Structure formats: C-alpha cells, structure tokens
Amino acid sequence: MNMKGRLMWRFTLQLSIAGVVALLIVAAGILWITHRYAEISITKDFASAGMERLVESSKLTPEGIRFDPKLLEQVKANNGWLQSLDETGGVEQSYNAPKDVPLKYAPGELVAYWLGKSPFPYHLYLWVQEKHGRVYTVVYGVKNEIGPILNMVASQGRLDSHDQLYLPDEMAKRLQMLGGFVQLINRDGVELGSYNKPHNVTKLYNIDELVLRSIYNVRYGYLMDSIYERDTGRTWIVAIPNPGERTQSEGSSFPPEAKVLLIAVVAMFLALVLVFFLLSLWNAHRFGSPMLHMLAWLDLLAKGEYKEPTDRKGIPRSRRSQGGTRSRYRVFSDFLHSIERLTTTLLRDRELRLQNKNLREEWISGITHDLKTPLSSIKGYAHMLSEERYEWSAEEVRSFSQTMLEKSAHMDRLINDLAITYRISAGVQPPEGEVIELNSWLRRSIEQAASHPSFDTHRVSFVPWGEDITIKLYGPWLDRVVMNLTANALLHNPPETQLTVSVMIDGQEDGIFILFTDNGQGMDEQTAGRLFERYYRGTDSMSMTEGTGLGMAIAKDLVEAMGGQITIDTMPDQGTTVRLSWPRG
C-alpha cells in the first residue's frame, strides 16, 4: 500500500474510532440520565416508581425474600416502611415498620385499610406479583400526615373579619414543620384565605386544576387533599411536600430533572472535547512529529548538510536504537526513502564535484606541464637559431628543426586529444559507420599501430576468429582506439612484455569481443579504477613525449560513443586484459 492509501486508512480508522467513542459517551450519558431520572422518580413517589423495581430486584433465599439494600434505604429516607406478606396475610419480612402496624392481616382488613374505609394512620400501597413460582404481596406504608390535618382544619379552622385564616397553634406549627399550606376557596374556586401558602401557588381553581393537583402529586411536588362543605359551598385544601423530596415551588426553573440533564450534557460535552483534544495531541505526535522531522531534514539538505537529523544519542529520529523504522514514521516510509535517496545522491554528487575539482586541477596542471615542456624545447631551439653570435651548420639546423617539429607534433596531438574528449563529452555522435570484416580490418590496424618506431613489432600478435565477423563501426575512431590501447600496453610495461589481440564471439552473451591481453606488470585496484580518467597515466611527459595522458579516456569515450563497452581485468604481476564488446546485429 502506498503512502496515500496508508494515510487514508489511518485517518478513516481514527475518525471511525472517534465516532464510536463519541457514541459510547452519548450512550453512557443517556443511561446515566435514565438511571438518575428513575432515582428521582423513586425519591418523589416511591409507591409508584419504587415498588415494581423493589420486587423485580428482590431475591428468594432460604431465609425468605431479600430486597435491594439501596431501595430499602430509600424507603427509610421517605419515612416509609415495608412489609412482605405470605398468602395467609402473615408478615414474612418487614423493614422500618412502626409498632402500631399489624403483623398479620385478614383479607378484608388489608383491603379496608388500603381503600381508606377503615381508620388507619398510614397510607398503604400494595404490589402483587408472581416471581420464582410464588405470589408476592408487598405493602408499602407512609405516615398519613395530610388526613388528620385536613380533618382538624375543616373542624377548627375559621376565617376572621380581615379575611385571615386562623388555625390552632399546634396545627400551625405542624404545617410549618412539614412545609405545607392551607387554602379556603369558595364555590367558584376563588381563594378566600390561606395559611403558609407559597407566593406562586394559584389563587383560582377550576375543576380540572384541583383534580390534576390532587392526582398527580409528583408533577406538582405536593400531596394535596380537600374537603367540600356542602352547606357553605366552600372547600378546604391542605397540601404538604411529597415524602423524601425538598419542596419545589411551582414554576421553578431548575427542577431536579433539569439539573440532571444539564450535568449530563455538560459532562458529555467535556468528555467529547477531551476525546478530540487527546486525538489531536495523538495526531500531532503521530503525524506532526514525522512531518516536522522531514521538514528539518529538507532544511539540512538546503544548507548543504547531507544527513538525517539525529537525537541527543546521535540516532536518526526515524530509526529505533536497535534498528528499523519507528512505528509513527512507517506511514511516511515512501517519502522517507525518497529523501534518503536524495540525500545519498546529493552526498555522492558533492563527493564527485570535489573529486572532479581535484581531477580538473590535476589535469590542468598536467596539461600545462605537457604544453610547456615541448614549448620550452621549441623556444630554446628558436633562440639558438636566432642567436647572431653563432653560425650553425646545415646539419645542426636540420637537427634543431627536426626536434622542433617533433615537439610541435606532440602539442598538436595533445590539442587534438583535448578536442576529441570534449566533443564526446558534449554528446557529439560519430559519423555514419561502415560495415567491416573485423578480422582483416583489425589485422591491418594492429600492424599499423605496431609499426611505430618506438615499438617492436614482434611484441604484438593477432589471433583472429575462425570465421568472418561483420560489424558496423566508424573506422577512424576504431583505429584510434586500437592505437591507444596498443601504445598503453607497450609503453607502460617492461620491454619484454607481449601483447596479444584476439577477436571472439560469445554465444551466451550474444556479443562480439576484442581482447587486448598482455603479460606485463599489471595494475593495482586503485590504478585500474582510475585508468580511464582524463590525464591519469603511469609516466610523465619527460619520460615519453608521445604520451598525452588522454589515450585511455579517449578510447573509452570512443568505444561507448560507437555503442560498445570497455572493461579491464588486471592484477599486479599478472598482466592486464582490456575487453571491448559490442552486441551482435
């Protein structure tokens, strides 16, 4: 997978994980809200919301039924009590039950208490459910605070001349302690008087308003009951806060449910912000650090420092100490490899530039020396011939002239060699070649090269191929190659060195080869590696005036310009073989 694919996969995976985490956070928030709403409902009205949950969470043990301890604590917090009855009406288990509560109920007795047909100091709530093959009857009771107060208000309460509602002191203190209030309304529902009433409780009741407040006490926060006086048409209303709940005034803008919702929304928002903040930090570390590292690397390259930035231990930042690429850098491996190759290339180019600079200085120094040496001879003989104090004989003048011609010819060859090398370096293609028969043509070229006055023709032998070989080459250039390779083998080896030139065809490599093999002193690896460099030679111009230091470089350039290759195989004291090769056809 390329870098683009890896980045797409990484970011897609991250966003998917972040989305899943966000959904989990929202789901956890919703579950928490649901749980808290259930607890609030149990706190406000245990009889409606808590009884079912109490039975469902119960467990049957050999000792009897066991209820959830947290729900039992809520029963106590609501000032209630709990009893579990068997099928005969006997109490099996009880919790927080007062002493005036029966330990066994007759069937009619329990129903009479529950429906309020018989006097009982508690409001009863029943829950009957089958579980584990048994029928459970759970009785939940709370103190009937509002009934006695309502009866006393209706019998002892009165309205004075200033429309102020009068209650006995004991009753007034009880109402204040419970946080309740009393209202007296006329036949039309208009308030005639009140006691301890909150300011936001309505002063006008219609039929549905009084019914709703009497039935849905959880919604309004108060238990409400009333007595209607048939003869006067007045109605006494008593209301006390729901058990286990702090008084919530009507129209309150911040009920418990809203508080729970606000806490959940804020918590979910902060959790999501934290998740995406951590994701951003992780991305900054996972992707930002490698990108900053690569930018720093490129900056070093721009400054000419061809190396990867390292840490305090000197280890490249993208590498582990034991080797290998760090995990956060792997997604950028393609780009890192490209920068690494660029670094290697720039470093190699810098080394080549330094090497070429040294070679150029060497070359210029050698060329200057080679030009000055014959030029000095020419200049010296010219001064001698122009000197008026001497009269030179004709034979001496011819000798001087011959030397001057030789030095001039050497300078001419040097200039021609320089011209050839730079033409080839500039990409000048050879003239149109001709089809030659290589055996016969090479024999003539070698005889011509060996006929030089400085060479011994017996030191050169030619071995042709067993059949005619035709190839298309440019003859003058090949002549120059043969001349240079022959001269190099004979001039830079001992006088007894033998040179053998052979032609062959290799069917496996499908090529035509010309081999120049001598049994001379050979070369070491460094000399062989620089043999084809311009102006690299084993002698100087003082020891051999014919040499220009460009012969082997010219031979290599000419062979490659004609589509061939030149290689060398040599070792010290084991001779040298120079191989020219061209593809067949």
UniProtKB/TrEMBL annotation:
The chain crosses the membrane at residues 260-282. One of its GO terms (cellular component) is plasma membrane. One of its GO terms (molecular function) is ATP binding. InterPro entries: BphY/WalK/GraS-like, HATPase_C_sf, HATPase_dom, His_kinase_dom, HisK_dim/P_dom, HisK_dim/P_sf, Sig_transdc_His_kin-like_C. Its EC number is 2.7.13.3. Its main location: membrane. Keywords: ATP-binding, Kinase, Membrane, Nucleotide-binding, Phosphoprotein, Transferase, Transmembrane, Transmembrane helix, Two-component regulatory system. Signal peptide: none annotated. It is an enzyme of class 2 (transferase). It is found in: Membrane. It catalyses: ATP + protein L-histidine = ADP + protein N-phospho-L-histidine. Pfam families: HATPase_c (PF02518), HisKA (PF00512). Residues 366-585 form the Histidine kinase domain. One of its GO terms (biological process) is cellular response to phosphate starvation. This is histidine kinase.
